[in-house]
Structures are given as C-alpha cells and as structure tokens.
Amino acid sequence: MSKNQFYAIIVAGGSGKRMKSHTPKQFLLLKGKPILMLSIEKFYQSKYQPTIIVVLAAQELETWENLIKEYNFTIPHQIVTGGIERFHSVKNALSLVTDEDAVIAIHDAVRPLVSLKTIDSCFEKAFTDGNAIAAISSKDSIRIQEENKNKAISRNQVYLIQTPQTFQYQQLKLAYKQDFEHFFTDDASVVEKAGFAIHLSGGDEYNFKITFPEDITLATALLDQAIHE
After folding, report:
1. Residue 4 gets which letter from DSSP?
2. Whole-model pTM?
3. Could you tell me the CA-to-CA distances from 25 to 13, 64, 90, 209 in Å, in that order?
C-alpha cells in the first residue's frame, strides 16, 4: 500500500437554490471559511495523504481562484471542470488519474464535517474489498410508498448513504464507460450497474450534506463543540 496511489475527488458543483442564496453552497462560509476549503482540509489531514482533485463548474473557476487568494489557501489540489450531471463531473475528474492501482474517494464538497475515521476506513476497506461506501443505519421507522398504498419495512434493512464513496480505479474505469442513466444518483449506483457488489462502511451521523440555511447553524454548533471528529 503506497500513499501516492490514493486520490480524493471532491465534487463541488452545487448551487445555492435551496439555501436561498446566490452564492453556490460550497462557497458559503462556515466558521469564517468557505465550506469547500474545509472539505479539502479534511482529506488533506487523512493519513493516506490523497492527491486531491476538485470539480467545479466552469463559471465558478474565477471565483475559486479569488477565494484561494483571499484566504491564502495553500493546500495543493488539481482543478477540473464539471459536466451536466454529477456522473459527467466525476468522469471528467477520473481523466486526471492514470495510476491503475489507485484507490479513489469521491466526496460531496458540502459534507465538511466528515470525520477522518470515516475517510480512512473507506480507503482501507476499498483497498482490500474493491469499494467502500460510507453509510449509517436508519434510526427512524421506515415506510415505502407503492402507488396508492404504503407499507412498513424493517429499519434494520435501511441504510442512509453518505460520501466518501471509495473505489479501486479498475471498478471506476469500467463503470464510467457506461452511458448516463437517470437513476445514477451517486457513484455506487454507477459501479453497481457495471456489475460490482457494493460494500458499506461505517459513516457518521454528523456527516450530513449542507443543503438548507439551518444546516449551517447546526454545522457551526458541531464545530464549536468539536464533536464531529
């Protein structure tokens, strides 16, 4: 296992619509720093020291460069422009990876509270098992809607999927040769469609996606208490 074979693709193509902001979510401030920078910092702190690739919309490249200067952000990372869908954005980022033995974590930029334990355990499990998807079991009762009826299912069967979603390069290389499908809502669904079994890895309850204004308030409180580690 060589540290230089690890990569982190941080997908930062979101908008601020549900946040009711003109600023893309990944650029909103959390504890005085753009959210995207916090996510990059977390992967930079991983013991696997992954090469970091950030995916940004073409129209946001100048904004990011200005933020780098404003905040004197020095963590090394590569930039690639995104595509129409997340699928295309990840595919663009994969074009920068040439090491066929690579282990690649794909992470939502707006999950800045991901723990180092989750990141490192996903790298470790993907290295040995082919892939590792951060997930937590549901605490709530679950019902499934089927046409005009709904029915209860055991919550022990339900997992809430997070990121990072981490894979060996060969799995991603094959999976992203497929044509885009609308049910490709995450990378695990793409890889599964290519015929690979998906392996879940322990996520954490604070690793939520910042989507609404109240999420900033919650994330700030958690960072103040330093309980997300």
Report:
1. G
2. 0.92
3. 9, 13, 18, 10
- Those residues whose C-beta lies under 8 Å from the C-beta of residue 128, and which sit 6 or more positions away, are none
Mean pLDDT calculated for residue range 53-75? 96
- Cα–Cα distance for residue pair 193/177, rounded to 1 Å: 11
Q: Which two tokens stand for residue 104?
A: 């690649």
CB of 171 closer than 8 Å to CB of 139: no
Largest CA distance in the chain: 55
Give the helix ranges, DSSP H, for the chain.
35-44, 61-70, 86-94, 116-129, 169-175, 187-193, 213-225
| Average pLDDT value for residue range 134-144 | 93
Q: Are strands 6-12 and 103-108 parallel, antiparallel or unpaired?
A: parallel
- For residue 78, give the H/E element and its range: strand 78-81
Bridge partners, residue 9, by sequence: 53, 106
The backbone torsions φ and ψ at residue 130, rounded to the nearest 5 degrees and listed phi first, read 105, -40
Structure tokens at 53: 């690739």
Q: What is the pLDDT of residues 93-131, one digit of tens each?
A: 999 999 999 999 999 999 999 999 999 999 999 999 999
pLDDT (average), residues 10-35: 78
Instruction: Tell me, rounded to whole angstroms, the distance of Cα 139 from its chain centroid.
Output: 22
